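Researcher: We are triaging several targets before committing to wet-lab work. For this one, the compound of interest is 2-oxoglutaric acid. I'm pasting the protein sequence and the ligand SMILES. What I need is the predicted three-dimensional arrangement of the protein with the ligand bound, expressed as structure tokens, so it can go straight into our comparison scripts without reformatting.
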Amino acid sequence: MASVAASVTRFGLSSTRARCRAARCRRFGRGRISRAARGYAAADEASTADEALSSETPRAWGWDDHGLGALRRHYAREGWVVVRRLVTPDEVDALHAATDALQAEASAFTRSRRERGVYFEVQSASGRKGDPAVAPGVLRKITSPSKRSRAFASLTMNANVRAVCAQLCGVSDGTAEEGSAARSPGSSRSSSSSSMRSMRCVVDQVNLKQPLGAGTGFPWHQDVSFLKPDARAACEAHGGCNAVVAMDRSHEGNGGFVVLGGTHRLGEKFSQTRDAYDGAAGFSGDVFDVSRRFCPRLAPGDAIFFHPALAHGSGTNHSPERRRIATLWFVGAGE
Ligand SMILES: O=C(O)CCC(=O)C(=O)O
């Protein structure tokens, strides 16, 4: 197997750059692509100034060429981009209803278990999934809700979500029409479009961070380390991107989702983090550079997209608010 550092540089934006030479330069023009490539800078060149946070965009559509270039450069440098109002209030309502139904089904669970394709992870006092629930039916995570919920299945196919993956985050849809979803992201394209067939959502889940201290945090980690081999291979070859869609408000005060900007370019640290992941809120020490820590203030329907190698995590929810997020992992496909 290739070295970890080589793997990390092979997927994501470095792959994008290579793909651009072959496919995208026709669409975006060589000048813009090469500027984006220059944005893929060494860590010590990256800015911590306000510009680093300026990718908090209002929505997935309506970016002009200049805005698109800036967002792509930001994603290349920081490894994340926030997109406001990506998912409609009706879609968020449907996700709430679907989550409520799954929670009702799990109302007596005291141990993590799989039921008809969906994995219910209980919230234990330690945060470890093998420990008993703090009370019957209290959940930390539901994995693969799309297998039984139309709302979550729709989210994995959402045209706006996929448009951002293709257009900003460099995930290949594997056709000459690459990025086509991005041209009309506001439209309700069906799963029959080419990008829908080829870009794969390999993980979907909902994380329920319970209020009043019950919902424990997530140590710093990189999702790429948890990809199954075939998904990892696709990610390395054709790009990958993960998305968190807020179902409730998410912010510093309620155990909000946190990213460590720029860490996607500093290598994979699985050997140092693997033992901490299935555990309590304590962060993984000083393994990652935390100097560009960022906790976006998200409203329901807002989303943050991030590189699969970007370190992220979150703290305990001590507030009285629920904090539910849907998470999706996408990998690209070749022609
Ligand atoms: O729910 C969160 O705040 C973090 C989720 C996460 O990183 C994970 O599920 O691996």
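Researcher: Any quick observations?
Model: The first strand starts at residue 80 and ends at 83.
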